[in-house]
Structures are given as structure tokens and as C-alpha cells.
Amino acid sequence: MAGRLKLLLDTHVMLWAISDPGRLSDQARSAIASEENEVFVSVVSPWEIAIKKSRNRIEIPDDLDRGLESSRFKLLPVLLRHTKAIETMPHHHRDPFDRMLVAQAIIDGMTLVTADRKLTHYAAALLPAI
Fold first, then answer.
1. What CATH number is associated with residue 103?
2. Residue at 113 is within a domain
3. Strand pairing class (6-9; 38-42)
4. Does residue 64 have a pLDDT over 80?
């Protein structure tokens, strides 16, 4: 990967980057670690984790908050331009969190780092996480 990238981490990629970076491909791990790139986490990721945790559908490390705080990841808010983009997106993926991440990546010119192959059907720039 040449040049400066704006990366947006899918929720599972954020979790792996903080607690189990060995699960990431060398390319993804290198791109995330590069000081040259800006790395973002959408506010929808902690929201998705909280919902799944409340339903006992996910286990997260106890130090996730500390890991996020100590990372150089920037928090990306959900803005009206992101929600507006959802209206015209095709329904290749039913997960509302993933659809928002795709919208944010497209609207803000970011590369979405994900292992979710369903997201390849969208016009977002993707970096395979595995």
C-alpha cells in the first residue's frame, strides 16, 4: 500500500487490532500500524459491541476501553451525510452497523478494513483483514 490512507476499522478488526493482532493479515496489521495512515473507529463499533454484549452474544476483553484509549485510533462520529447515504445504498448486507460503516467509508473517502466478504458488493474501498 503506497501513500497515506484513511482507514476505517470494522468492529471485529478493531477488536483484533487491540486484543489479538495476530488474527489480522500482514497487510492489514502493517497498514494499521503505519504512522503514515490515519486509523478511525466509528462510534457505531462500541455501540454494536455494547448491544451484543448485553445480549450475551459477544465476549470482549476487560481492557477494551483502555486499549481504545491507548491506541492512536480516532473516533468517527455518525453525521447526517452518513445517514443520508444509507437511503440509496443497495441491500447487499442486512446488518445496520456494517451498512453504516460502508456509508461512512464511501462518503469520507476511507478504506474499510474488514474480513466480511459480503461488503465487497459495495463501492467502498476495502482492505482484507485476513
1. 3.40.50.1010
2. yes
3. parallel
4. no
